[in-house]
Structure formats: structure tokens, C-alpha cells
């Protein structure tokens, strides 16, 4: 890897030009998504009443937006031979649905039916689990011809130990708003799961700390190598570091004035020596699809003002927001940066 700015590829290959990989469960999720979307678009009041919302008229617009998202995901699942991207996009949509339903449940000012809302949340959690299972299955299945999954969000590991990750997502915000978040690299650990911290050092340089298995961590210094406001940011590790990290984020206006397409790519290339080899083994454990989930967290943060935890662990029976933050407060915070 050289120190010169690198021209990254565009969107990852979400689709594989192979025979149809979809099983019955995946096709069911596609048709379910379309059916739910049609109901939310054409009968939003009935859907609101079904899940226990007392004021059906207040959320007509919100439910119709959810419906458009569901139909887009369903069509993607049914029309693509290996719809990995669309299955993981459903997981992100599920998280947004869970956040919205939980807000309705917790809002004491709304006279909603808590029993119906809890039932709806439970149903969404079940569908989310199914989406994750199918998405993981497609992500992990390999193409015999290439040895890695062209439909996933990880570009396979090279013979030299290099780990390349890439993903994209469409966010309902302008390129300028998205750029304001990413230009401050200290914001990255808020959405990138394997990063523990990023601390700016001045003059375009920063100190990075990444999480690793067994409670270990890896640290290095990096510098910004290209910064085009509202368009593109790229960075790489300094030459003396054991980890040669290269990353970039691109902001592209989405067609139809739908916001911004975020393209995120990261590459970890260990330098020589025993330490470099150990570091390579640590980064190889980053799961496929991890960066996609990171971008989904960014989408939630920008659009909802918070990142939603929907693991429903034993200690928490329902989905719960992590670090809640009002959307307007978040935008004020970004402007202040």
C-alpha cells in the first residue's frame, strides 16, 4: 500500500450474477416486506390501530414512509439472485421500526394500547431474528469460482493478510450534514463497532484504537490524506505504524432527492514482523457485513437522533435506545464541530 491517495471503487457488488441463491424463507421475507409495505401505504390508519396506536391520523405519513422502504426491500429481495444487501437493509429497517414502536410504548402522553404495542414489538423482534439469520446465511455462503462472497460487504482477504471492508447506505440527510459528522474523526467510534476511540492530534493527524477479540486492542496514528468538503474524506496510517490502515468515505447525492448515498471503505494491511502477523489475525476476525451495520447505526443517528439496541437480551426484555439524543440537538452538535 502506498501513501498516495487512493481512488476507491464505487458501490460494493451487492449482487452476484449467479443462479438464484434464495430459499423459501428468503422469498417469504421478500413477499412479506411487499405485503406489509402495501398495507402501510394504502391502509396506514388500520395498521396504526392494529399495533395499538390511539391517534391513527398522527402517524399516517410516518407509516407510509415505512411502507415505501418495505416495498423497496421486498422488490430487491425478490428480483436479485443473491440479495444480501437487501436482507441486511431489512435488519436496519427493523431497528427503526423497533425504535418507533418503543417510543410509542413509552410515551405517557399518548393513550396507546400497551398490550398491542408489546405484541407488535415481539413480532418485529421475531422477524428481525429471521432477517439476521437469512442475511448471515447469504453473507457466509461462498462462490465456488472466487472463494469469497461477492454478494457480501467484505472484499475478501488477500494473500498478504490485507483485510478490506466496504459498504454503502442511503441516509435521509444532505451531503453537507453527513460530511459534518465524518469530518470529525472522533465521531467514528459512535457508529463503527470495532473502533474504541479516535483522538485528534492536530494538523490532520489522529490516534486510533480498535477493539480486538479476547479484550485486546490495537492502536496506531493516522492522517487525513484528502478532504473534499461535502464529497470525500480519506485517511491512512502513518508509515512507522504496525498497522497500515486506509479508509475513505464518499458522499453522493441520492437519486430522486432522497438524501445522500454514503460509501464507506476500510482496509487493514499488516506490516512485516511477528507483531504485524498477530495484528493481521485480529483484523481477520472482523465479520462480513460489519461495516454495513455500522452505516445503519449512522443512518439511525442522523435520522432518529439515537442509535437503537435491539438485541433484547435477558437483562432487557425490550429494545432500548443507546445514548438518546434529539435529532435537532445532534444537528446543533455537528454544526458546532
What does the model show?
This protein is of the alpha+beta class. It folds into two domains: 24-140; 154-336, START domain (Alpha-D-Glucose-1,6-Bisphosphate, Chain A, domain 4). Helix content is 42%, strand content 21%. The chain contains nine helices and ten strands.
What is the topology?
Layout: H1 24-42, H2 44-51, H3 60-79, H4 84-106, H5 114-140, E1 154-155, E2 163-171, H6 175-182, E3 195-202, E4 205-211, E5 217-228, E6 232-237, E7 243-253, E8 260-270, H7 274-283, H8 290-304, E9 307-309, E10 320-322, H9 327-336
Antiparallel strand pairs: 1-2, 2-8, 3-4, 4-5, 5-6, 6-7, 7-8, 9-10
Helix pairs in contact: 1-2, 1-3, 2-3, 3-4, 4-5, 4-8
Which key features would you list for this structure?
337 residues, single chain, 9 helices, alpha+beta, disordered N terminus, two-stranded antiparallel sheet, Alpha-D-Glucose-1,6-Bisphosphate, Chain A, domain 4, 42% helix
Q: Architecture of the largest domain, CATH level 2?
A: 2-Layer Sandwich
Please state how the strands of the largest beta sheet are arranged side by side.
Answer: 1-2-8-7-6-5-4-3
Note the run of SSEs as H and E: HHHHHEEHEEEEEEHHEEH
Briefly note the CATH topology name of the largest domain. Alpha-D-Glucose-1,6-Bisphosphate, Chain A, domain 4
* Overall number of strands: 10
Provide mean pLDDT, rounded: 75
Low-confidence stretches: 1-20, 142-157, 310-329
Report the top-level CATH class of the largest domain: Alpha Beta
CATH superfamily placement of the largest domain:
START domain
Approximate strand percentage: 15-25%
The percent of residues in helical segments reads: 40-55%
Q: Number of helix segments?
A: 9
Main sheet characteristics: 8 strands, antiparallel
Shape: elongated
C-alpha-based Rg, rounded: 21 Å
| Amino-to-carboxy terminus distance | 32 Å
| Domain module count | 2
Structural class computed from helices and strand pairing: alpha+beta
Amino acid at each position: 500500500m502506498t501513501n498516495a491517495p487512493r481512488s476507491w471503487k464505487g458501490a460494493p457488488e451487492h449482487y452476484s450474477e449467479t443462479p438464484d441463491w434464495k430459499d423459501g424463507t428468503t422469498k417469504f421475507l421478500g413477499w412479506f416486506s411487499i405485503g406489509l409495505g402495501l398495507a402501510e401505504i394504502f391502509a396506514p390508519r388500520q395498521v396504526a390501530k392494529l399495533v395499538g396506536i390511539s391517534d391513527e391520523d398522527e402517524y399516517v405519513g410516518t407509516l407510509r414512509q415505512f411502507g415505501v422502504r418495505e416495498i423497496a426491500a421486498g422488490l430487491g429481495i425478490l428480483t436479485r439472485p443473491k440479495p444480501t444487501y437487501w436482507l441486511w437493509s431489512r435488519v436496519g429497517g427493523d431497528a427503526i421500526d423497533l425504535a418507533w414502536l418503543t417510543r410509542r410504548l413509552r410515551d405517557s402522553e399518548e393513550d396507546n394500547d400497551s398490550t398491542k404495542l408489546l405484541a407488535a414489538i415481539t413480532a418485529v423482534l421475531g422477524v428481525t431474528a429471521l432477517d439476521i439469520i437469512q442475511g448471515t446465511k447469504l453473507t457466509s455462503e461462498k462462490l465456488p469460482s472466487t472463494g469469497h462472497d461477492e454478494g457480501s460487504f467484505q472484499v475478501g482477504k488477500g494473500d498478504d493478510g490485507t483485510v478490506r471492508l466496504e459498504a454503502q447506505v442511503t441516509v435521509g440527510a444532505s451531503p453537507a450534514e453527513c460530511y459534518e459528522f465524518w469530518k470529525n474523526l472522533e465521531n467514528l467510534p459512535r457508529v463503527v463497532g470495532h473502533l474504541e476511540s479516535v483522538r485528534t492530534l492536530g494538523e490532520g493527524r489522529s490516534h486510533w484504537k480498535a477493539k480486538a477479540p479476547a479484550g485486546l486492542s490495537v492502536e496506531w496514528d493516522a492522517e487525513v490524506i484528502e478532504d473534499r468538503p461535502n464529497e470525500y474524506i480519506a485517511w491512512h496510517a502513518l508509515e512507522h505504524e504496525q498497522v497500515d490502515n486506509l479508509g475513505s468515505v464518499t458522499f453522493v447525492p441520492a437519486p430522486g432527492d432522497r438524501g445522500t448515498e454514503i460509501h464507506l471503505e476500510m482496509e487493514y494491511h499488516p506490516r512485516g514482523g511477528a507483531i504485524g502477523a498477530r495484528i493481521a489475525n485480529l483484523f481477520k476476525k472482523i465479520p462480513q457485513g460489519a461495516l454495513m451495520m455500522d452505516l445503519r447505526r449512522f443512518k439511525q443517528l442522523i435520522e432518529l437522533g439515537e442509535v437503537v439496541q435491539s438485541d433484547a437480551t435477558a437483562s432487557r426484555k425490550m429494545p432500548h435506545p443507546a445514548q438518546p439524543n434529539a435529532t435537532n440537538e445532534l444537528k446543533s452538535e455537528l454544526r458546532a464541530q
